[in-house]
Here is the input.
Amino acid sequence: MSKDSSRFWAICSNFLLLCALMFGSARCAAVDAVSPRATTFNDQADTFRNRMILENVVRAAYAEPLQFSNLSGTTGINSLNGTAGATIPFPFRGGHASPLPLQTISANISSQASLSNNFSSSSQDDQDFYQGLHNPLSESTLFSFIQQGYEPRIVFGLLASDLIFYNEKGEDIISNDPKRWRDGYLPFQQVVDLLVSDGGMNIEDISTEKQIGPSLSAARLEQPQVLAALLAPADKAPRVSMKNGRYSLVKDTSQFRVCFRPRTANGQIDFGQVTDIDRFRFLRNFKISPSDICGAKQKEESKDANKVAIKFHPRSAAAGFIYLGKIAAYQLGLNPDVGREDTGLRTDATNRYFLFKVDRNPPPPEWLTVAHEGAYYGIGLDPRGLHDGSSRILALLKDLMALESVAKSQPAPLVATLVGG
Here is the structure.
């Protein structure tokens, strides 16, 4: 073999070895990449929760029992094994026309990768879970959803079972009941929308501090009993406040209230477009009182018997599922009394807004679909929230499911105040 031939084979051999090493390195990098797999796990967990919630809405539409599962303990495992051996000879140098004998090099680069995922899924059917699921939300928790950015029509639409306009002369009850479309569901949604658009409904933080025990001197503040109280767990520990040279232990209480910034100077809201308004005595002349304006320092004591206040009954997360199931039942044709389009709130002559909208065997693409009893059910995605609130309802239900452990420890509220009272 000539020198040129030997050099050629040497170059080829080195090139093939380099390719094999690069291939093995690439396989290693592919196996060890953490970020794409972690993102996949996150996406799959999100899809699991969304589909579980939607399937329970479909179950509620068919009057079937609800069933919940929990996904936890997801673990990704990867491994890479490599071996090298001498199996394929490549001429390296020497041989014909060379004083050196023919020398060859043999190489076998192989790699083996394995990926596995471990996860656990358990049925949520214990007493604590169902206690939280069926306990109505507290007023402060419900208002905090709006304060965090959820639209009032989404929060009240799902979690308020009614609106009660009342004064000393009586009350008007507007029931948020899908089985009562014209004298319940539609007026309820319209009133909430007008309270937001014309009344400027908002949530105001009115957190206060509560003094614990008497005022203390600087010397008393250093006593062991006081120091022990300050070292309590973060959610129970008070803090020290100083006023006029005296110290006291105080605890902050987180609290929210509904407030308004009405368009009109006198605070009146025009409810004239509400469906069947003549059924409700207190809607036509309803006004927002000065004490309910955002920033008002204190409640006014009014002796006006005509002043109208508003209260409502909060729902539980379980009642929210049943409520959506009733809406879905109409939309799926399970109740012949109401057509599909009647389940949408008409916002103008050509537009309907659906608080929640589910389709059977929907044409692609739908944002989320589930299979149930041989059929597919899907909801759409409306990022601007102009026509469909389904994805926002789903997001709120996910938060409610996560907070079920909080709801079970709170006293069940009978009624919550929206305006006045």
